Amino acid sequence: MGDTPSTESKARRRWITLGETIALAALVISALGLWNSWRSDEGTRPTPSEAKAAIPIAFRGKVEANGKALTISPIESGHSLESLTLTAGSKPAIIIGSDGRLDASQVQQLVGDPAKDKASSLVVRIEARYIEAGALKRGGGHYRISFRWDDGGLFGGDRLRLTGLGVA
């Protein structure tokens, strides 16, 4: 017995060679697929300025505590509120923090005495400082704060109750 390899070892060598050939073919096909996808993506990638256009800020209002407060928040979830400033004519401005909570007593300072019709609205300018895509921005617009006057009963005066916020 000597140097001649047996039939079993020759068959095993053939299978190893066939396995290597299949692996090499798979590697070449994968490389070609990667090159093809890389080549086709070259001109379609957006530049950073095209990636996401800025969206102007807009607000919504949610009445809370039976009209004693109004929470003003950005409609777009990508806007993070820093502060709000509300102005109505020549009256002193109301500055609200990042929570956006406006109390009825603050609006009552802008409105003054109760109106005869008991339901009304006030047009205000809302200026906002907010963060969008990591940059501090400013924006705003004119909005209408709706409210009504409730009778305070025997011992209390009229109380202002907020009912909503809309675009003016």
Structure characterization notes:
- With 168 residues, the protein is of the alpha+beta class.
- The longest helix is centred in the N-terminal third of the chain and has 35 residues, at 7-41.
- The chain has three helices and eight strands, in the order ααβββββαβββ.
- It has helices spanning 7-41, 48-51, 104-111; strands at residues 59-64, 69-74, 79-87, 94-96, 101-103, 119-132, 135-150, 159-167.
Largest sheet: 5 strands, antiparallel
The portion of residues forming beta strands comes to 35-45%
Radius of gyration: 35 Å
First-residue to last-residue Cα separation: 103 Å
Low-pLDDT ranges = none
Class based on secondary structure composition and strand pairing: alpha+beta
Structure, briefly:
The protein has two domains: 1-41; 58-167, no CATH class. Helix content is 28%, strand content 39%. The chain has three helices and eight strands; from the N terminus they run H-H-E-E-E-E-E-H-E-E-E.
Which labels suit this protein?
single chain, 168 residues, alpha+beta, 2 domains, 5-stranded antiparallel beta sheet, 3-stranded antiparallel beta sheet, 3 helices, 8 strands, 28% helix
Write the layout of secondary structure elements.
Blueprint (H helix, E strand, L loop, with lengths): L6 H35 L6 H4 L7 E6 L4 E6 L4 E9 L6 E3 L4 E3 H8 L7 E14 L2 E16 L8 E9 L1
Antiparallel strand pairs: 1-2, 2-5, 3-4, 3-6, 6-7, 7-8
